[in-house]
Amino acid sequence: MNDFLGRGFIILTKAPRGTKDILPQAVGEWTYIEEKIRKMCAAYGFGEIITPVFEHTELFVRGVGDTSDVVQKEMYTFDDKGGRSITLRPEGTAPIVRAFLENSLFALPLPLKLFYIISCYRYEKPQAGRLREFHQFGIEAIGSDEPSLDAEAISLASAIFKALGIKNLSLIINSIGCPSCRGKYNAALTEFLAGRAGSLCMTCNERLLKNPMRVFDCKSPECQAALLGAPRLSDYICADCAAHFDKVREYLDSLKISYEVDEKIVRGLDYYTKTVFEFVSDDIGAQGTVCGGGRYDGLSEQLGSKKPFPGVGFAMGLERLLLLLHEQGAHLPGASAPDIFIANIGQGAAALSLSNALRKFNIAAEMDHGGRSLKAQMKLADKLGARFSLVLGDNEVLSGVAALKDMKTGEAADFKLDDIAPLSAAILKGKKTD
Ligand code: HAM
Predict the structure, then answer these.
(1) How far apart are CA 292 and CA 270, in angstroms?
(2) Sign of the CA dihedral with 415 first, then 418, 421, and 424 last
(3) Of 277, 310, 350, 424, which cross-links 361 as Cys (Cβ 3.0–4.6 Å)?
(4) Distance of alpha carbon 203 from alpha carbon 329, whole angstroms
(5) If 0-12 CB within 10 Å is exposed, 13-18 middle and 19+ buried, where does residue 191 land?
(6) Model pTM above 0.90
């Protein structure tokens, strides 16, 4: 690594593997996405919720499930100084259902519709679109098992993709039934796969004992080959679950949201029941699942509630969303540039107070804090992308008049410094015509 004089140096430590700094140049893109998300969530009646970054480990063990890869291999778990086992949240659904129960949010009109934009932590092998610290936007609608809610959740995800101009996303849906029909199916699948255990990988042999449907998630060609001719969940699904799934599809058809039913979609977290879905892209390599979600009708009881509060939700990975937007050449806002750069020659105090006066009008004003020459200040104004510049020297301060210069056209006009309104109006006008 070199410093700005080209001298080599070794930084004390780098950011941990699988984490990424979001630099000022990129923050504009994040805020742009978040604004679109917040606007759309408001239109769909979802209110924001913020929960802690860490939770008691048992929340995820019980909620996400001890047969999931997330709990078995990927959690950041440690004992705190009080000897309690703590885990950095690997996902948002279990914490939000916990908050729903703990804060008696069930007393509010149901379903309660919540959204969140959070960081998550999973100890996975980092690669493009897969990080150890990543960010999710997600929603949870809790307190109704109506299939219209599943369709509304899917249509919100779809509306957000549309608002961001994302193309070529496929929506894949499936129903994985309820514990009663899935129990029968699991027994049939286990019997089928037991005869092929020799061709399954080690992980799938474990899956066979604990959660055989997870074998569908395996990428190994041998395991996929072993699944050929396996019993189909749709042949085992009970009448209630089948009717629920039919309704979800009917609603999606009526909303003209196209989808494909894929029985191989089983999702990696244990709380799912009935509807599961994913939005997948071929444009960003192996980690193509941009959004995943589904119904979790038994989760509140898993977390201790006596009463069921069925729910449905999804989460999309913001890093994957950004990868996709870049891949598809979307126009994203860059770093924000100042509206005006106020250069000064020995008039630092005047430049400071003029900057502050303009900032009161919502104008982004910048000045030199590096003791630069006038020439270097103008170079800096250019580098920062300032729309206007204004020079304050002894003459300007004495006469009370300074020239506002448009950095693109070079046009300049004089303004009085003791009456800020016409000056700020001219700057704001320039801003609006951009
Ligand atoms: P998930 O499928 O585990 O579901 O994650 C949702 C999304 O988060 C993925 O589709 C992906 O875009 C992103 N994601 C997951 N892991 C990583 C990673 N290591 N690096 C970057 N992005 C990642 C859930 O988390 C559920 N809580 C979703 C849900 C909400 N289901 C119902 N409600």
Answers:
(1) 13
(2) positive
(3) 424
(4) 39
(5) exposed
(6) yes
What residues pair up with 54 in beta bridges, in sequence order? 88
Q: Is the peptide bond before 310 cis (omega within 30 degrees of 0)?
A: no
Q: Whose CA is nearest to atom 1 of ligand 1?
A: 292
Amino acid in position 268? G
The three-state secondary structure class of 384 is: helix
Task: State whether residue 166 is helix, strand or coil.
Answer: coil
In tens digits, the chain (434 residues) has pLDDT values of 888 888 888 899 999 999 999 999 899 999 999 999 999 999 999 999 999 999 999 999 999 998 889 999 999 999 999 999 999 999 999 999 999 999 999 999 999 999 999 999 999 999 999 999 999 999 999 999 999 999 999 999 999 999 999 999 999 999 999 999 999 999 999 999 998 999 999 889 988 888 899 898 888 899 999 999 999 999 999 999 999 999 999 999 999 999 999 998 989 899 999 999 999 999 888 889 999 999 999 999 999 999 999 999 999 999 999 999 999 999 898 888 999 999 999 999 999 999 999 999 999 999 999 999 999 999 999 999 999 999 999 999 999 999 999 999 999 999 999 999 999 999 999 675 44
Question: Quick one: tokens of 275?
Answer: 């509807």
Contact criterion met (CB below 8 Å) for 93 and 294: no
Whether the Cβ atoms of residue 347 and residue 394 lie closer than 8 Å to each other: yes
Residues 260, 353: Cα–Cα separation, whole Å: 61
Contact 204, 220 (CB under 8 A): yes
**Residues 299, 236, 315, 256: what is their CA dihedral angle, to the nearest 10 degrees?**
-130
Ligand 1 shell residues, CB under 6 Å: 91-93, 122, 124, 129-131, 134, 136, 138, 140, 268-269, 289-294, 313-317, 319-320
Which residues on neighbouring strands pair with residue 121, listed in sequence order? Answer: 133
CA atoms of 88 and 77, how far apart (whole Å) = 7
Strands 85-88 and 260-261: unpaired
